[in-house]
Amino acid sequence: MQQPKNLRTFLLVFAICQVSAFMAGSVLQFSNGFSAFWAPTGVCLVGLVLAPFRWWLPLLILQTGVDTVATAANFDVFVLPDDSIKVGLAAYYLKRVTEPEPYSIKSLKSFVQMLLACALSFATVAVYSAPSSELWLGYWMGDLLGVTMVAPLFFLEHAHRKDTQKFESVITLLVFLIVTRAVFLSSNLFTLSPLEYPYILFPLLLWVSIRLPDRVVAISTISVAALSVYYTGQNMGPFLALPVSPTDQLLILQIFLLILTTGPVFLSLTVYERKSAAGASRRYRADQVKAERVYQLLFETSGVSIGILKNRK
pLDDT value at position 186? Predict the structure, then answer.
């Protein structure tokens, strides 16, 4: 994973932040006016972690200028300055904790570090962003979901498994799209409560986490989460059938998305660590047997007698 070292790469990262903010604000918007997940937060975290420290101050200055222009034009769907600040705190920690190597999600520990760093920094900085505790919780969950959806796609070590199941991966993604559409468009297929319908997708996600490469795991979770938010924003799906307020519906949807985006990654990393530990154990036993054979051959051909005297008291 190489860090960007020129102005062109830096401006490209900044442009991606703005485009993703526009998409999140205009397409994946919930019925009460809030985005269930704020994708620019994840993109901004990726950009800051990949970018060298010398580009951080220009990024914040440019972001503040863009936000000022957007607010003046009544088109406030861009990353806010406080978003960049709270993401910057988490990115600074991730860069420092993994120096001199670039940050990557290669173990459960590194993934938990990212979740805790983002959860704490978002909670401390976003206190003043919402007038009530319910809205604050929605903002906080949306920012955290933006990280859990976008960051694994860039930071997961894709070398965990070889991308040899290309046909199987394509078929799996198509099945996910079909099943997700059926879950959110057909509410009378099964005799289940509305809240149980979305979790029909979890057996497929668990199978993908064990079977397919990490890149497919990340793409699958992003696809399902995006479709879930889109259909819910179009007043379709099981989350709107619950007899609760729109704010509570948003919170239930966000909890579902949090489980959806973190569960498969946790399982995928657990499977990888167990396979790595089993492989290391096999290699250690093989090296031990090989060393014993070498010593045995050395003793048999050396012509030197070896005796063991027992110490008697």
Answer: 67
pLDDT under 50: residue ranges of the chain:
1-5, 25-27, 31-32, 74-79, 159-160, 163
Q: Which amino acid is at 174?
A: L
Tell me if 60 sits within 8 A of 263, measured CB to CB.
no
Q: Are 169 and 212 in contact (CB under 8 A)?
A: yes
Q: Is 65 exposed, middle or buried (0-12, 13-18, 19+ CB in 10 A)?
A: exposed
Task: Give me the helix-helix angle, 108-125 and 246-302, nearest 10°.
Answer: 150
Residue in the block written with tokens 């036993």: 285
Q: Which residues pair with 105 in a beta bridge?
A: 156
Other beta carbons within 10 Å of 201: 19
Write down the pLDDT at residue 116: 92
Domain boundary assignment for the chain: 1-155, 161-303
Q: What are phi and psi of 85, to 5 degrees?
A: -70, -50
pTM of the model: 0.76
Separation CA 84–CA 244 (nearest Å):
33
pLDDT at 78: 47
How far apart CA 255 and CA 93 sit, in angstroms, is 26
d(CA 199, CA 257): 11
